[in-house]
Amino acid sequence: MAQQHGIIVLFDVENALRTRSLDGNTYWFDNMKFLGSAGVGTEQLVTIVPGTHFSDGSQATEQVLNWLPAVLGAIPPTVPRNYLAEQERADDRRTLRELASLDGEGGVSDADIKRLQRRVGKRARKSGGGRGLTESKLLDVTGRTTSDSGAYNYPAPVITDITGPAVAEKIMYPAQYGSPDMIYDGWYWAATVDTSRPGVYPYTMHVQLHELVERNDELVWESVDLTCGSSLKITNDPKRNGFTGAGLGVLPLPPVPAAG
In terms of pTM, does the model score above 0.90? Predict the structure, then answer.
């Protein structure tokens, strides 16, 4: 059975959009540090992929990589997909209740209207060609609607391709897959890895960020395409038991207490 490797890529989207570069604006993590992955938490991650082969050197089984992008300082991507819509509706209900109470007190002033408009927030639509960004209200990092275009929650980065020597040399075979996952728009990137060829193989991740701009009195999410890189290090050590440190096999059983 193939072993699953999770690779989380954390993006400083605000600074990346300002500098138009992902250099210094990504933080990579994987779940293979205990086997020797280097640079965990930096942009120089080298993911260890243990070799899995038979005694004659032929490949025994492939390994599988899964990439999960996230935004630094944003609403966590692990919240349910309907979270943002529910927050919008909740703020609308609060605003309507307050509007009704003010009207019952003898009228609504211009200052009240402006304050309620700020609470209702602003909507932003996607630019042509984008995917996964429907027209929705701006939310801040706490999940509340906002009209401040300088303090909003960024959409999750979208991986658009994976290239580089690791792909060109047929070390890994990346592809985009559909999934019922309610977090990443139902899409994610994964790759199978040929573990029979030890060595270090870099790869390039192509990422689409989204920048909020004002055009013709509208707020629009415009795509910005950037790249960043990482590496795989395939070792010639076969998989081993994570509990015992030995080769794959039956786990040791605890001693059975004597009856009586």
Answer: no
Pair (90, 193) in one structural domain: no
Please answer whether residues 51 and 198 qualify as being in contact, where contact means their C-beta atoms are separated by less than 8 angstroms: yes
Query: Does one domain contain both 135 and 108?
Result: yes
Where does residue 255 rank: exposed (0-12), middle (13-18), buried (19+ CB within 10 A)?
A: exposed
**Domain C-terminal end among 119, 153, 187:** 153
245 belongs to a structural domain:
no
Provide the residue-wise pLDDT of the chain in tens; the chain has 260 residues.
457 889 999 999 999 999 999 999 999 999 888 888 999 999 999 999 887 666 666 656 678 899 999 998 887 777 776 776 677 777 777 776 776 677 666 666 767 666 666 666 566 666 654 444 555 677 777 777 776 656 778 888 989 999 999 999 999 999 988 765 555 566 789 999 988 788 999 999 999 999 988 877 778 888 999 999 999 999 876 556 666 666 655 555 667 677 66
Contacts of 216 (CB under 8 A, 6+ apart): none
Answer whether residue 249 is part of any domain: no
80 neighbors 66 (Cβ within 8 angstroms): no
Can you list the positions of beta strands (E) in 94-215? 123-126, 136-137, 158-163, 172-178, 187-193, 199-215
